[in-house]
């Protein structure tokens, strides 16, 4: 009896892991955002220099995350999902998310769109991609922190359905700016398997 139960648990765990791996994949493909086609793929270590260049362009020459932070995230085999968007072989946007099965939360770790490509729907597309994956995993929430001064990003997140849920005082390294916590409720009437 115990042997059969162990086999049953192994089968369930294997099926759940296979489903999760499938959800955390992205086929390299072209998507239409507005009137422009963008190539979407999973972020690779080789994308890090371009990701840092986008951060410098967005954050006035600074990089909130350094090269090692990005590489560490991209090397993690489970619980992380990073995508990049390219137009004519130029990296123009990226987004990263940490998926926590225990808390049933997908936490947006980083998102940036090069200023040349802002206000064209790329940020919204990437956020919706992460929200969909959280839904497929039957997570309860998608969360993030945003700078208090970044009202454009706050407006984007609110338009997607995020709500302000708190403030982290002096959160950001360097300038110690406050961060606003924002939460998107993925499933209100969650069905258990």
TrEMBL record:
Enzyme Commission number: 2.3.1.266
Cellular compartments per GO CC: ribosome
Domain N-acetyltransferase residue range list: 39-187
InterPro entries, per database record: AcTrfase_RimI/Ard1, Acyl_CoA_acyltransferase, GNAT_dom, YpeA/RimI_acetyltransf
GO molecular function per UniProt: protein-N-terminal-alanine acetyltransferase activity
Pfam family, one: Acetyltransf_1
Keyword Transferase: yes
Keyword annotations of the record: Acyltransferase, Cytoplasm, Ribonucleoprotein, Ribosomal protein, Transferase
SUPFAM superfamilies: Acyl-CoA N-acyltransferases (Nat) (SSF55729)
Keyword Ribonucleoprotein: yes
Domain of life: Bacteria
Family: Belongs to the acetyltransferase family. RimI subfamily.
Protein name listed in UniProt: Ribosomal protein S18-alanine N-acetyltransferase
Natural source organism: Lactiplantibacillus daoliensis
Gene assigned in the entry: rimI
């Amino acid at each position: 009896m115990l042997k059969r139960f162990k086999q049953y648990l192994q089968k369930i765990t294997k099926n759940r892991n296979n489903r999760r791996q499938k959800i955390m994949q992205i086929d390299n493909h072209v998507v239409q955002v507005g009137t422009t086609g963008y190539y979407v793929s999973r972020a690779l270590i080789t994308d890090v220099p371009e990701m840092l260049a986008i951060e410098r362009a967005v954050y006035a020459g600074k990089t909130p995350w350094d090269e090692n932070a990005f590489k560490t995230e991209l090397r993690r085999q489970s619980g992380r999902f990073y995508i990049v968007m390219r137009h004519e072989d130029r990296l123009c946007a990226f987004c990263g998310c940490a998926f926590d099965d225990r808390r049933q939360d997908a936490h947006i770790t980083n998102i940036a769109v090069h200023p040349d490509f802002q206000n064209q729907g790329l940020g919204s597309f990437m956020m919706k991609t992460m929200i969909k994956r959280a839904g497929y995993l039957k997570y309860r929430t998608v969360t993030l922190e945003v700078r208090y001064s970044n009202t454009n990003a706050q407006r984007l997140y609110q338009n997607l359905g995020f709500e302000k849920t708190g403030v982290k005082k002096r959160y950001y390294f360097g300038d110690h700016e406050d961060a606003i916590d924002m939460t998107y409720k993925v499933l209100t009437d969650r069905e258990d398997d």
